[in-house]
Amino acid sequence: MSVTLASASPVTRIEQTGPADVRRLVTVQPGMCGPTALFAARVGDWTWESVSTVCGLDVFNAQDAQGRAAYLAFHYFRIRSGGHLTPERITFGDRLEVITRVFSQGRRSVLTLHRIRRLPQGATELDASFDLEEFHERPRPDCLYVENLNHWLTRGAGHTNVGLVHTPPVGFDHTRLPELPDVYSPKTPCRQARADHRFHDPATAHYTPSGDQLIVNHRVDVTRDINGVGLMYFASFLSIAEGALLELWRGLGRTDRAFLDRSLQDIRICYLGNADLDATLRLHLRLARDPENQHHERADILIQDTAGDRALAVASFRVHTAGPQ
Predict the structure, then answer these.
(1) Strand partners, 320
(2) LnmK N-terminal domain: which residues (predicted)?
């Protein structure tokens, strides 16, 4: 089945290819590449579009039974490279094929997987088959993967961003989505990240700590960090984390050019809360290296609201550095 849903612009074509599957052909524009947060923001838009498409619900205007706006908020966001294609290698004019699959995680949550491939010059279609085993066990070197777990949230009383309430919107029917096997659910690593303030990653378990912890403060910037409904934007957390990583990088005597030349292999972030407009965030950063290859590094980041040391997010960046450090 292939039903064209939109082709209003020459840079994007979207079609539903199955009950819970969407395919896009996308030409990369300036607003979706460069900083990691710009790429993540565009993928986040694809998530909302895909859930709207396969669930028959306008996610952008969803409301709960009391008429309050319901937001499909990001709880877990992972960007994983198969090896060759990484976020920083996506640039102006690249033609991408994006295959998206949507899964049920209960009536209050949705999981979305995206597989991104650069189309060869002149190609219009590649193999669209994509399964869970590919993402978790045998990623393709020429692909970039993004995994999102989203929860339906709404504000409680007042305008505060603290204490958001889990409430599914009217019209959301998760039963029309395929179930996600427990073995592939990110709920377990998210629970571990909440409890331990770091991700458990068997692939980097042998890495050894390098240097002291760095602490960086960030005052919420209402001109950059806040989205159109007054919440801290999910992609802002990635921007703030990478800004702190740049400070760590410079403290090691490394150049900004070398920072841009990194290869981002695996980024994970679990969102535990939101922050009010006047909040100050405190980021705790630790670096670890592969003792067998000093160019392979992992940075663990805890983001807290300084008011009460409330944990807002836990992040991990696994990178390959480009040269001697």
Answers:
(1) 263, 296
(2) 23-200
- pLDDT, mean of residues 161-179: 93
CA 97 to CA 100: how far, in whole Å? 10
Q: 297 - beta bridge partners?
A: 289, 319
Adjacent-strand bridge partners of 152: 72
**For residue 242, what is the DSSP state?**
H
Give the integer Cα–Cα distance in Å for 290 and 208: 7
What's the confidence (pLDDT) of residue 6? 41
Range with the poorest average pLDDT among 128-132, 174-178, 191-195: 128-132
Token look-up 């694809």 returns 46
Give the count of beta carbons closer than 10 Å to the beta carbon of residue 268. Answer: 22
CA–CA separation, 186 and 111 (whole Å): 9
For residue 183, the Cα-to-chain-centroid distance in whole angstroms is 20
CA distance 26 to 97: 6
276 contacts 247 by C-beta, under 8 angstroms: no
153: tokens are: 């949230």
pLDDT tens by residue, 186-204: 999 999 999 999 999 999 9
Sign of the four-CA dihedral 81, 84, 90, 95: negative
Assign 72 to helix, strand or coil.
strand
Q: Which helix (H) or strand (E) holds 309?
A: none
Using CB atoms within 10 Å of the CB of residue 198, give its burial: 0 to 12 exposed, 13 to 18 middle, 19+ buried.
middle
| 3-state DSSP assignment of residue 13 | strand
Taking a C-beta distance cutoff of 8 angstroms, is the pair 276, 222 a contact? no
- Token pair for 149: 């777990």
Q: What angle do CA 113, 165, 163 make, to 5 degrees?
A: 110
Residues 5-41 have pLDDT tens digits of: 344 445 788 899 999 999 999 999 999 999 999 999 9
DSSP 59: G
Residues 153 and 5: their CA atoms lie apart, in Å, by 28
Average pLDDT over residues 59-87: 96
